[in-house]
Write a structure and sequence with these properties.
binds beta-D-glucopyranose, 25 strands, five-stranded parallel sheet, Immunoglobulin-like, single chain, alpha/beta, 752 residues, globular, six-stranded mixed sheet, Rossmann fold
């Protein structure tokens, strides 16, 4: 049979089938359409829908043991592929989609997945950074822009947001989440999903979002990547699951398994998580995709003896699509025939996948996301660059500002800029920038030069992590101090020194756990050497995780946490340093004093001996304070805010009103993020000493006072018991309102 004949024959078949479904469109619901297709599918074709291959460009995980991470064309043509990930560019998406719809028997379109984590071409601040803005609208807008650019490149599915709560800065992926607090992370997650998925999929810019990694991945033991997770039910229900539940309730379409085992059961084969909770209790109707190779990894977990058993466990548990394990496509047909996996399980998974393809409108127009003109027009659009600049400005946290060293004056002569990161146009793009182009960020050097002509630069030292890329890292201990002399000379001759120190862009992220979280390489040494010759140092931190910068916090007069802010990093940093923007961000992860304090987080439980006595028998370290270096919710401003008049009105027990007055006592207009925490003082399960339950971000003009009101309902006052039931217990509650989790006004009330 000639190729031409084959193509035209299958195209004809596709047209007939499409026409049939078109004919039914007027009356049929999506469910009926799904059912109709299902009836026509062979077992192999059904299982094919449950198979996701990597495209031929970049791999975002290790090659499977059974072959290379390359799409298998013969399988694609046989209709044995439901989705492809990591395909870059409309022409490549189009090529594969044409094969799927024109050359396969049933012409079912493919889903194209991609890690659009903090932008596609235009890069936004890493999620940990943007969470510090506490600005859910701006975050929603950032994912909307990311969806516009991703969809302009043919992508219809992003593997974001990452909703893993983490309390361990050693874990490299803290950069990808919203920090340590489940309440804030839930609000941010819902906003991210709204931005990605839009109001409806009738828009060509709405793409599927993914809640990942379900569940517990942020609690990997010792912060070591892919490690086991052992946690209590109380933590699972009250800390880990709430962001997932929130996005499921808000209509997210897909969920991704986690790599880790959860109390001994790998998440990918976890019936309780996937079936009992997600699909049955929460009534999730979308599809569950495995993480990269996580089905086959159940063998290494010691949970499955081979790939057939791994496929059986995953499918039965409720995993609908296999990313890069090849276990479903290679094993499931046989397993169904042998009766190990019920065809009903397969049908359910396939229905979930087809339903989503219908909802996206791919059956009506498989090339809906393939528009070369849009691809040319929309990537790096000036509107998008403006949006990332604004979010970056909102994400910068002012950690210290002794004697008002900041903001710098534009008239300031002789400003030294030191540190290799200051002149690095990649690191500040962060780790997940797989579609973006190298060297596209505005560096700090460029940003400062856009505002001042008095900047002189010396590298001083490299960050020193050896050769690195998204997939590889060779660690070398680079002790090269030859650049110190020039930097010291420059610092001596300058009025003020800006030092940009921190991590290389690939030093945090997946596969990047660290056992030390101080400044890597000789950067600490460089900082101390410069300090000897000039004390007027502004330290700009550029990093993907909280760092233990205790010496700097004690000695350096001004510190800003600039994270990795994306395409407009330099302009954002410069605007804050020169006071064009008044910083307003607040930390969403606690900064430890040393790695030994980890896990350290504000919403911890109490213990039987929390208070210092006159002997050693209380909960403490003998060589370190219990206090964090910077607490959750901490961040300064060029304005000064004073809280007073905390008031609680319990007239309506179902709607408790809390109010507080905030005065801007400075001469500078500024934004403040007022935070409300509660403490359930006596309960049937010990509750955290503080839990964030509300916040408000508000502009307060110079010398102006504003009264802020919060409402507490049962939603805020209740919690999940160890059976996963939400309960509200009467009794005494402490309410704390303030500028960060440590600096609060307190009052108590009785909940009836
Ligand atoms: C990561 C996921 C990601 C997937 C596909 C995995 O290694 O854990 O978060 O979505 O690769 O790139």
């Amino acid at each position: 049979m000639s190729l031409i004949y084959k193509i035209s024959f299958s195209t004809l078949l596709w047209l007939i089938l499409t026409n049939q479904s078109n004919a039914q469109i007027l009356s049929a619901t999506i469910e009926q359409k799904v059912e109709n297709i299902l009836q026509k599918m062979t077992i192999e074709e059904k299982i094919g829908q449950m198979n996701q291959y990597n495209g031929f460009w970049d791999a975002t995980g290790p090659a499977p043991k059974s072959g290379s991470s390359k799409i298998k064309y013969d399988n694609l043509k046989k209709g044995l592929v439901g989705s492809v990930l990591n395909v870059k560019g409309v022409s490549n998406v189009r090529k594969l989609q044409e094969i799927a719809v024109k050359e396969t028997r049933l012409g079912i379109p493919l889903l194209f997945g991609f890690d659009v984590i903090h932008g596609q071409k235009t890069i936004f601040p890493i999620p940990l950074a943007s969470s510090c803005s506490w600005d859910v609208e701006a975050i929603e807008n950032s994912t909307k822009v990311a969806a516009i650019e991703a969809s302009a490149m043919g992508i219809n599915w992003t593997f974001a947001p990452m909703l893993d709560i983490s309390r361990d800065a050693r874990w490299g992926r803290v950069m990808e989440g919203a920090g340590e607090d489940p309440y804030l992370a839930s609000l941010i997650g819902v906003a991210q999903v709204k931005g990605f998925q839009g109001k409806s999929f009738s828009s060509n810019h709405s793409i599927l979002a993914t809640a990942k990694h379900f569940a517990g991945y942020g609690f990997v033991e010792a912060g070591r990547e892919y490690n086991a997770v052992n946690i209590s039910n109380a933590q699972l229900y009250n800390v880990i699951l709430p962001p997932f539940k929130a996005v499921v309730d808000s209509g997210i379409k897909t969920v991704m398994n986690a790599f880790n085992s959860l109390n001994g059961i790998p998440a990918t084969g976890n019936q309780f998580l996937l079936r009992d909770l997600l699909k049955d209790k929460w009534k999730f109707k979308g599809l569950v995709v495995s993480d990269w190779g996580s089905i086959i990894e159940m063998i290494d977990h010691g949970f499955a003896k081979d790939s057939a058993e791994a496929a059986t466990i995953a499918a039965n548990a409720g995993c609908d699509m296999d990313m890069e394990s090849y276990a479903f496509v290679d094993q499931l047909t046989e397993l169904v025939k042998k009766g190990k996996v019920d065809i009903k399980i397969i049908d359910e998974a396939v229905k979930r996948i087809l339903r989503i393809k219908f909802e996206l409108g791919l059956f009506d127009n498989p090339f809906k996301y393939c528009d070369e003109n849009k691809e040319k027009e929309l990537l790096y659009h000036p509107r998008h660059l403006k949006a990332t600049l604004e979010l970056a400005q909102k994400s910068i946290v002012l950690l210290k500002n002794e004697n008002n060293l900041l903001p710098l004056k534009k008239s300031q002569k002789k400003i030294a800029l030191i540190g290799s990161l200051a002149n690095d146009k990649n690191s500040c793009l962060g780790n997940w920038r797989i579609a973006s182009d190298d060297n596209t960020a505005i560096s700090v050097l460029e940003g400062l030069q856009n505002i001042s002509s008095n900047i002189s630069y010396a590298k001083g030292a490299d960050v020193a992590i050896g050769k690195t890329s998204f997939v590889k890292q060779t660690i070398v201990n680079d002790n090269d101090t030859t650049g110190f002399a020039d930097a010291i000379k420059l610092a001596k001759a300058s009025e003020v020194v800006i030092m940009v120190l921190g991590e290389n862009g690939f030093q945090s992220g997946e596969g990047r756990s660290r056992s030390k979280i101080d400044l890597p390489g000789v950067q600490q040494q460089l900082l101390e050497e410069i300090f000897k010759v000039n004390k007027n140092i502004v330290l700009v931190l550029m990093n993907g995780r909280p760092l233990a910068i205790t010496w700097a916090a004690q000695n350096i007069p001004a510190i800003i946490e600039a994270w990795q802010l994306g395409s407009q990093t330099g302009n954002a940093v410069a605007s804050v340093l020169f006071g064009e923007v008044n910083p307003s961000a607040k930390l969403t992860m606690t900064f430890p004093r040393s790695v030994g304090q980890i896990p350290i987080y504000y919403n911890h439980l109490s213990n039987g001996r929390p208070n210092a006595g006159n002997n050693v028998f209380w909960s403490h370290y003998s060589d370190e304070s219990n206090q964090p270096l910077y607490p959750f919710g901490f961040g300064l401003s060029y304005s000064k805010f004073k809280y007073s008049n905390l008031n609680i009105d319990t007239t309506n027990n179902e709607k408790i009103k809390v109010s507080v007055t905030i005065k801007n006592t400075s001469n500078v207009d500024g934004e403040e993020i007022a935070q409300l925490y509660i403490h359930d003082k006596v309960s049937s399960i010990s509750r955290p000493v503080k839990e964030l339950k509300a916040f408000k971000k508000l502009l307060i003009k110079a010398n102006e006072s504003k009264t802020v009101e919060f409402i507490l309902t049962n939603n805020e006052l209740g919690y999940y018991n160890n059976n996963g039931n939400f309960i509200i217990e009467a009794g005494e509650f402490e309410v704390m309102v303030g500028t960060n989790s440590d600096d609060v006004l307190k009052k108590t009330f009785n909940k009836m």
